[in-house]
Amino acid sequence: MTNPSVVIGDIHGNNVKLKAMIKKIRGMYGEDVDLYSTGDLIDRGPDSKGVVETCIQEGISACIGNHDFWVLQLLHTQRIHPCYFDRSWKIAPTLKSYGANTLYSAQASQELLERMPQSHKDFFLDSHFIQRIDQDGDLYWVTHSGIEKRVGESITAPNDLVFIDLLLEKDASQFYFGYPNLKRDGVYNFRSGTQIFGHQIVKRPLVRDRWIAIDTGCGTIPGAKLTAVVLPDQTIIQV
């Protein structure tokens, strides 16, 4: 058996929880563990910069969450779109953690570009819309939001890899801003493997035959736990 892989759910700027999670994982499984993230590393919580730095230092491979996507846009366009300054996004804590202007202006975009370390920029640019994990004969697909069944079944493809390419071409936002119905069989089933995702807050992790949802509100709900799932045995860890 190979060393386990661990997928960590949405963090939202809570670096204290992230560090506690990593310490717990290392204590249970040792140092040689592959770490992944469902994304939404930033916004809402107080230390987005610290979360990104911890991910870099610990070698965490991250998916792009909808809250991470605006940084990706900034790096490509040199500006933060004004829609992200709506209070519902809560990007001000992220800007503040990097020492940038927290009010909408061209200055905010410029300051964040100037003050974000190149290693952080590279980390966002190297993040993934979807990650494949082959663990001891079991296959897992990690995204931020999970793919909606109605969208997935609208695409005809001979295998999962072709399906992913077609969906990326048709609607890449499905990987980070989808919203499958978790109560009414609304999650797309890959031909092979299990989806793991966050994005939708659940009271407790949901482990089903073909999908696992692990966003339990860390960084969004005061006192909420950070959740991770260990592969291949699907053990749940929380801090």
Condensed summary:
By secondary structure, this protein is an alpha/beta fold. It has a single domain (5-238), classed as Purple Acid Phosphatase, chain A, domain 2 (4-Layer Sandwich).
Explain what you see.
The protein is an alpha/beta fold and 239 residues long. The protein has one domain (5-238): Metallo-dependent phosphatases (Purple Acid Phosphatase, chain A, domain 2), CATH 3.60.21.10. The protein has helices spanning 15-29, 48-58, 66-77, 92-97, 106-115, 118-125, 149-152, 160-171, 174-177, and strands spanning 5-8, 34-37, 61-62, 131-135, 138-142, 194-197, 206-207, 211-213, 227-231, 235-238. It has a five-stranded mixed beta sheet with strand order 3-2-1-9-10, covered by helices on one side. Strands 4-5-6-8-7 form a five-stranded mixed beta sheet, with no helix packed on it. Helix 1 links the parallel strand 1 (5-8) and strand 2. Helix 1 (15-29) runs parallel beside helix 2. The longest helix is centred in the N-terminal third of the chain and has 15 residues, at 15-29.
- What is the percent of helical residues? 25-40%
Number of domains: 1
How many angstroms separate the termini? 26 Å
By CATH, the superfamily comes out as Metallo-dependent phosphatases
Uncertain segments of ≥5 residues (pLDDT<50)? none
How many individual β-strands?
Answer: 10
Write down the CATH topology: Purple Acid Phosphatase, chain A, domain 2
Largest sheet: 5 strands, mixed
Sheet with the most strands: spatial strand order: 3-2-1-9-10
What is the alpha-carbon Rg in Å?
A: 17 Å
Helix and strand pattern: EHEHEHHHHEEHHHEEEEE
- SS element count, helices: 9
Structural class: alpha/beta
Overall body shape: globular
CATH architecture: 4-Layer Sandwich
Mean model confidence by pLDDT: 96
CATH class identity = Alpha Beta
Residue share in β-strands: 15-25%
